[in-house]
Amino acid sequence: MRTTTLILTFLWLASLVTSRSLVDTLKKDDRFTELVHQLNRTQLLRDLERFDTGTVFAPVNKAFDKENLSRAALLYHVLPNEVTTQDFYDGQLLGTSYHRQKLKVTKQKKNQWAVGNNDAKIIDADVETDNGVIQVIDSVLKPLDDLTQTLLHDDDLEEFGDLVKRSKLDRELKRVNGFTVFATKDVLDGLSDDVKAYLDHSPVDLAKVLGHQIHAGPIYSYDLEFGKKEYSTLQGEPIIVEVNKNNEITVNGAKVIRHDILASNGVIHLVEKPILPKNRGFLHMDVRKALISVNASKFVRMLEDYGLHSYLESKAAQTILAPTNDVLKDDEHDHSQSAVVSWLKYHIINDKYTKDNLSDGQLLQTQSAHHLGDHMHQRLPIHIVDKDIIQFGGSGVSACPKLIDNSIVYPLARPLAMPRSALGQLPLDLDLSTFVASLYASKASDVVDSAEGITLLAPTNKAFQNLGLVTKHLLQSPEKLANVIGFQTLTDLFYYNDKDHHCGMTLSKEKRCFNTSIIDQPNTLVSNGVIHKVHSLALPCSLEITHQDLLDVAGTNTFYERLIRQDKDILDKDKSYILIAPTDAAMARAKEFVLQIHLVPIDKEDEKRILENENDVTLNTDYEGVSVVFTRNTVRVGQTEADIVDWGKSTRGRGGVIVVNQVLPKPSRQGLAWWQVMLIALAVLAGAALLGAVIYFGYRWWKQRREGYITLDHE
């Protein structure tokens, strides 16, 4: 009995001495000291001792860098079963101990085997142990990336990976487990350029296109059997995977050119051409998609947020001017809702305008009616620099327009600015400073600013100057000035290029007609209408300006006093007069003043000739025998010429006041001119000659008659 026990003990000890387990082999081999250290650090060495069988891909010491490997990374080096190189074949997938992740086997040149996605070479194959086999490799196996990272880091798959990231599918492909991706190059080939541009800015529909190439489950090439099989996709429309007699794999007829590209949470197959879904109704281009395709999704969102989605769904002809996302600022929302709605509508034009339909200076009718009333719409000016450069309201077009059914979309380089208020726009033109001052002086500014749908005929400074004394009088009479300002403001919209002649009611409650010939600068758009810069100032019929009103501002007090003292009734007479009023300085210098010479009766025809600046208009004065010659800048009596300093037209009757720089003199009696004397002398000589001739010929006739008689006394 004792002998038997000794024998058994000896055999047990011998077995211990000759034991060659996976762990023992690794520990005893100096090539694996770093691997043993890492396994022990992560407590995997103890787990490995309990393996009944397995395969360890063991990196040699020099394969390790200074960083420690994680437990997961080490598990990727261990198979739960024994596999020798005799069992290997090219493209074989081995199941590891790490979450069922696969390890790919690749056969290289000269029967060299490599494993893993980093092609770690087996430098010592099939090291046998009692409970498995060790494959010695020259580098550490790298755990697989997830599907997203695998797509992005592979040259063949990078384009597909970029689209996955853009579509936001990358987040899902990081979380899922066991998905299959059928990736392609040129993923969107077969789609129109407009659809491609749309998908470039639409992650939702791009995800649908890519989802048609993703199956929610693992499909490895070795699982496929001969024939066709249908697989579901994330997009919903199934795909057909077929293995033909040549063992070639196709997906919807497109050949798989790389298969079993492993990821930590799935597998990827590279297909030679796109496998787009057959049902692509979700890609049908409409206004919304066209806007998104030009990178105007913010503008689309604003239209939807402010209840204007009907324009996105409209079948009516329209032109949409869309600011792109990179120029549309967030503070566009920092206004009242009505202001934002009006601003959005200002980007939508009634009717469809292609480039061929546009012309320089054209005014397009928008959908915005802000400050114009219920039945009028804001206009948008067009400026064409050349055939390829078009500006809408000062904003250029940043890309080619998109045509969709009855709509056209122009992407804008910057958002449109709504027209300024009239009171904000007018001061920008210094040539209208007198008109601006008149608006505030007459207190008509608030009325003009609050009126809706107006046409403002804004006279230039020169137009005010041309009225002379009338302007001075108006500036001293706010009520009359307000009436004049109101007469420049028509309560309807008249644009320069509508027609040549316009008539309408004004804020002064009088009808006014005007011709476009008076317009110097047309169609300055403002929030409540349009401004035309004009070179004349029209006065309303209701405006009454008398001679006395003009004299009050003429600076001719001395003349006025003499007029009142000698003939004050002339200011009330129905008969029309031009009062030639010398300045006070001229009156002070004058030695003699005859009032009647400065009073010139005038009729309609005479007034017309003077107003039309006809040269040398001669009119009789109230002083008998004295006439006055009116030229463009002077008044002349006889040889004396006075310069016109100022003037103003009366609206009561005809005529007005002309201010001159000197008193007109009383003409003195003078001798005849030399040519008059010459004419008289010639006339006298001619008369004398004629009389002599008559006497001479009369005498001869008488003499002849006398000589012809016979005397009877001598008979």
From TrEMBL:
GO terms for cellular component: extracellular space. It comes from Lichtheimia ramosa. The keyword Transmembrane helix applies. InterPro entries: Adhesion/Biosynth-related (IPR050904), FAS1_dom_sf (IPR036378), FAS1_domain (IPR000782). Keywords: Membrane, Signal, Transmembrane, Transmembrane helix. The lineage of its organism: Eukaryota, Fungi, Fungi incertae sedis, Mucoromycota, Mucoromycotina. The chain crosses the membrane at residues 673-699. The keyword Membrane applies. Residues 19-141, 144-275, 283-416, 419-538 form the FAS1 domain. Residues 1-19 form the signal peptide. Pfam families: Fasciclin. It comes from the Eukaryota. This is FAS1 domain-containing protein.
